[in-house]
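Input chain follows. Return structure tokens only.
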Amino acid sequence: MNSILLNKCQIIFQPESYTSLNSLLKGKSYSSVFVLVDENTHHFCAHYLLQNLETDLNIEIIEIEPGENFKTIETCLQIWQSLNELGADRSSLLINLGGGIVTDIGGFVGSTFKRGIDFVHIPTTLLGMVDASIGGKNGVNLEGLKNQIGVIRPPLQILIDVGFLATLPQQEMRSGLAEMLKHGLISDEKYFNNFEDLSNFDIEKINDFIYESIQIKTNITEKDAEEKSLRMQLNFGHTLGHAIETYCMNSSKMNKLLHGEAVAIGMILALYLSAEICNFPVNQLDKSSKIINSYFDKVDFDKNDIKEIITLLIHDKKNRNGNINFVLLENIGVAKINCQVDSELIYKAFEFYKNL
């Protein structure tokens, strides 16, 4: 597969990915290399990466705890301290090996340590490959609220090695699938319809879907890197999805949801809101919602849950001038940003989701 260039960041696919990384190591005068991992990628992925690195430079591994609860400034502080103690300088390279949490944190650390060092992302999850590592967004949560602190700065390279997906549980695979479904909904009905039934697709077909999903995101992002307008459509399903994810993460009564699981619910809710506000076709509402719902377990929300979720919407990053802004659809491939939605309609959207 041909590499993709996004605002000076190369997205490189197997088998060329490690060749390109080794060329980077040889071509730049790096003083040292650091590999950021979590407990899982340290165990399952780090050895394979190290086997493929061709360098005489000193390589140090820094491990963080896995999970959304550790996507915090405190974790960044630990990494900054480790880099200092291990002698990192402005000529060091940071390789972020992991899912979206590792690449988000690693990108933020790399963007800020010594006022910025070079970094490379090697996503090991489907979510990381098709979404989290793409586009230069780096950051952490604040007091349980999603992605409140961060910067936009792209890595030098993103290496896509689908071999890492063999280490993932099915729940993690479905989490990444949610973002691929989103890419189809906001840009390409034909692409979205591919997900009606994945039972007969082989690994090569999945590779093609990953590549196409990355192309969709890069085509949007390169036109609006700072997320001033067009890039906002990539947040379809995320306004309520992030609020649901945050609520479930902090609630003692709810099971925690992976990012994609929460976004899948958010997309179904957004499709209903799109039909009510933007005249999204009802037949598409039913079909699209059922496709999304078929991949994810249903979550029960009572009225108090929904009230708390609505309260959390005030912290969404798309909000402007006190307004809570949604991304909705007029049709598949036709997104509309900065849509206002009243609370009564959100309750009705949850009722629609409940009755699917």
